[in-house]
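Quick one, tokens below. Sequence please?
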């Protein structure tokens, strides 16, 4: 299993719920206001996860997907997925 962080900047209409629903369906945990942690199969990569999530945001929104190899946090909303 791999750990990913998904960070977004929703602009314009800001339809958060569509993205939240999909992140929750994937087993995501909200770590900070716009940062989620996902634990997904080893065959998942950053590009494929980004491409999948693009259907849940608008064309002017920002999105970044990072594969996590280590992390440290402070005052987070939820503990990120562990390795």
């Amino acid at each position: 299993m791999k750990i990913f962080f998904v960070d977004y900047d929703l602009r314009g209409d800001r339809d958060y719920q569509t993205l939240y629903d999909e992140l929750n369906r994937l087993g995501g945990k909200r770590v900070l206001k716009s940062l989620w942690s996902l634990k997904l199969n080893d065959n998942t990569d950053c590009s494929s996860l980004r491409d999948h999530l693009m259907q849940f945001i608008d064309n002017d929104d920002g999105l970044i997907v990072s594969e996590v190899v280590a992390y440290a946090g402070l005052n987070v909303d939820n503990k990120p997925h562990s390795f």
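The longest strand covers residues 2-9. The CA atoms of residues 19 and 56 lie 5 Å apart.
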